Amino acid sequence: MVMSETTASPIASPAQKSLEHENVATGEPKMRARNVDVYYGNKKAIDGVDIDVYTEYVTAFIGPSGCGKSTFLRALNRMNDTIPSARVTGTIELDGEDIYASGMDVVQLRARVGMVFQKPNPFPKSIYDNIAYGPKIHGLAENKPELDEIVEQSLRRAGLWQEVKDRLADSGTALSGGQQQRLCIARAIAVDPEVILMDEPCSALDPIATAKIEELIDELRGRYGIVIVTHSMQQAARVSQRTAFFHLGHLVEYGHTSDIFTNPREQRTQDYITGRYG
Amino acid sequence: MSDAAANIRPTRTPAFEARLKKRYAAERRFKAIGLSAILFSVAVLVFLLVTMAMNGIGGFQRTELRVPVDFSATPLTLTADVQDERDVVQSLERQGLRDIIDVNASAALGEEGAAQVNSEAWRIVAQQIAADPSLARGEQVFWLPTSEGLATAYAGDGSADLQPLARQLADEGALADNLDLGFLERSDATDPQLAGIWGALKGSILTMIVTLALAFPIGVLAALYLEEYAPKNRWTDLLEVSINNLAAVPSIIFGLLGLAVFLWIFPSYRSAPLIGGMTLALMTMPVIVIAGRNAIKAVPPSIRDGALAVGASPVQVVFHHVLPLALPGILTGTIIGMARALGETAPLLLIGMRAFVSSPPQGFTDNATVLPMQIFLWSDEIDRGFVERTSAAIIVLLVFLLLMNGLAIYLRNRFEKKW
Fold first, then answer.
1. Which of A58, A66, B339, B406 could connect to A240 by a Cys-Cys bridge, CB 3.0–4.6 Å?
2. At what angle do helices A127-138 and A177-190 cross, to 10 degrees?
3. Residue B4 touches chain A, beta carbons under 8 Å
4. DSSP string across B172-225
5. What is the Cα–Cα distance from B31 to B19, expressed in whole angstroms?
6. Residues B192, A257: Cα–Cα separation, whole Å
7. Judged by CB atoms within 8 Å, which residues 165-184 of A form the interface with B?
């Protein structure tokens, strides 16, 4: 019952029994957000969100379009920095370090907190170069054999190795949509991040490709902290152990996925998951 | 009957059919207008090219006289150690080559005919001998340029008194229009029979090199900075408007600027490709900046996001991803700007590149002229020979332009990537 140590977390856990086979190694969350507001200009897109992300769980963000879940996700690795009008207040910590502190290096942060986007966006380069790009710029490989090793391992972890091992020199954009998305996941894995943020990674994919990505997410759980934004509640239920429901910039409810879907505390959550609005 | 009315589907009513017919008619009309626009453009282009080619072919030819020369009577000595062509020509002049040619021409063509051999003809013989000393032994046949008067008469133009002589020599087979590839190797001359385009072509090449070397990096860096780094505020808006205006400034004003600024800084480089290239670079740069910014804007943001998300720094995103993807578009813009610069005369007039330059420039700081300027200068001449030479120069300019565009298209296709 390690979770009992983190009673300060907003997760009320009435279903204590479910924790036992979720195998929590440590009570410390990987990422901790406290009282986070995100503004676009004067518009407040996220209002006072508190959330903990654990390496052991997949955390799903659900909510209707425009509720701010993607905005909040992008705040977790400071991708919002590219939008000049965006502004973040509150604290977001990675292993206890404030990522918005002035001493935090954004480049290093993004190497530790990777991201996979809604639309597969492989670089218009070869499959090999797509994976090797991150390790190259971070100097993770001393020589070519090491780089080859990283590329192979990343593709294996992303479940793509068998499909592409004979055509690593082909363009990454020549792959199918699902393969491209797994390539993007492999690209994120290649720099050995601690957390991977996924922004609706399956919304452009067919059900078979979606199933593959979901399997992959499940395999990666435990090694990397995974946060996934999804519009599909079935997907959230399938892949995640924790679910956060966002509505109009507020975090309405955060808890065990099983609780959110079977026994939500809030009426709004109940309405959303039963399809009454959203 | 009411059944039949009910069976008429809304897409089968007469009114609907009439509307459908009108829509198809509108489409056909539009297609026909578009096609006729294309046909008109093609017809104009073909007319232009055919006219140029017809006139220009004459410019690549030269009216020449057949002069057999017997060197056995007056042997010439060529010292083996004399390597420089100019020294050989001088030595041959001292040995009386000019008279030898005169005497032999008189023997072959008569006094009247010999008088119409171009006064510089002996120099052509001397240059040929310098290139191939075996020509100075025994009996050789040279085709030597005629005087401009005889060339005009042979073309059935000009003074009437030379025309019988031209006809007579042509009948004897001693006078003909020969292909003159030397046109591409010589420089400007006062005699159209001796004029060539190489000096102007080389001047153009040198000027274009300077223009490209200045305008391309400055333009691309400015475009990158404005798109990727500059904050979006009133000052950058002002800058953007200024650059757009700069691209629309009449070219002669850039010439005035070059005169006032560049020639004030480097007063001794008047008429030099260096100053010409700098002036044209000013004119080309805004075009490259505008095209570059559009190309950079067209790089999908998802590529930037992807690179940022694996931890690339902004400068790595720009040089590893944005610039390679934008390069085809930038190259297209560059070539449009360069093509405009290549055809530009007005700004170069003001910095003195309209001088008569009889030897090709050896470097960026030598006196030079450029192709369009040469065309402009020759088109001012009244000699019939220059009319044809002008057309030939236009063909050379167009071929140069075509090669430049071809290179740009090749580079663009090479760098183009699909995503």
1. A58
2. 20
3. no
4. TT-EEEEE-GGGGT----SSTTT--SHHHHHHHHHHHHHHHHHHHHHHHHHHHI
5. 19
6. 92
7. 171, 173, 184
Give the residues of chain A that fall short of pLDDT 70: 1-27, 277-278
Distances (CA, A) of B414 to A40, A62, A168, B146, B327: 41, 44, 21, 50, 10
Per-residue confidence (pLDDT) for residue B4, from 0 to 100 = 54
Contacts of residue A178, defined as CB under 8 A and 6 or more positions apart, other chains included, come to: A205, A206, A208, A209, A210, A212, A213
Is the minimum CB–CB distance between B9 and chain A shorter than 8 Å?
no
What six digits make up the tokens of B309? Answer: 């998300």
Q: pLDDT digit string (tens) for B332-369?
A: 899 889 999 998 989 998 888 887 888 888 889 888 89
Q: Shortest CA distance to B297 belongs to which of B241, B227, B354?
A: B227
How far does CA B124 lie from the centroid of its chain? 27
**CB contact at 8 A, A124 and B418:** yes
- Rounded-to-integer distance, Cα B170 and Cα B63, Å: 10
Q: Provide the 10 A C-beta neighbour count for residue B41.
A: 10
Please provide the DSSP assignment of A162-207 as one string: HHHTT-TTSBGGGS-HHHHHHHHHHHHHHT--SEEEEESTTTTS-H
Sequence-ordered alpha helix ranges (H) in B298-383: 301-309, 314-316, 323-342, 346-350, 371-379
Mark B161-189 as b/e (b = at least 16 C-beta within 10 Å): ebbebbeebeeeebbebeebeebeebbbe
Structure tokens at B344: 């530009």
Q: What pTM was computed for the model?
A: 0.80
**Dihedral Cα A8, A10, A16, A20, nearest 10 deg:** -80
Question: Rounded to whole angstroms, how far apart are CA atoms B144 and A75?
Answer: 83
For residues B275-304, average pLDDT: 93
User: What is the ipTM, given to two decimal places?
Assistant: 0.83
Q: Which long-range contacts (CB under 8 A, 24 or more apart) does A16-21 make?
A: A18/A256, A18/A258
Which residues, including other chains, have CB under 8 Å from residue B262's CB and lie 6 or more apart? B269, B275, B278, B279, B351
3-state SS class at B382:
coil
pLDDT digits (tens, 9 = 90+) for B118-171: 888 888 888 888 777 777 777 888 888 888 888 888 877 777 778 888 888 888
Contact B143, B134 (CB under 8 A): no
CB–CB of A107 and B313 under 8 A?
A: yes
What is the structure's pLDDT at B105?
A: 83
Q: How many residues belong to chain B?
A: 419
Written as six digits, the tokens of A211 are: 């199933």
Q: In chain B, what's the furthest Cα-to-Cα distance?
A: 119
Give the C-alpha separation, A231 to A70, whole Å. Answer: 11
Give the strand order in the sheet containing B139-145: B139-145, B61-70, B175-179
Q: Give Cα B162 distance to the centre of its chain.
A: 36
- B233 and chain A in contact, CB less than 8 A: no
Query: For residue B320, which residues of chain A lie inside 8 Å, CB to CB?
Result: 133, 137
A110/B304 touch (CB, cutoff 8 Å), yes or no:
no
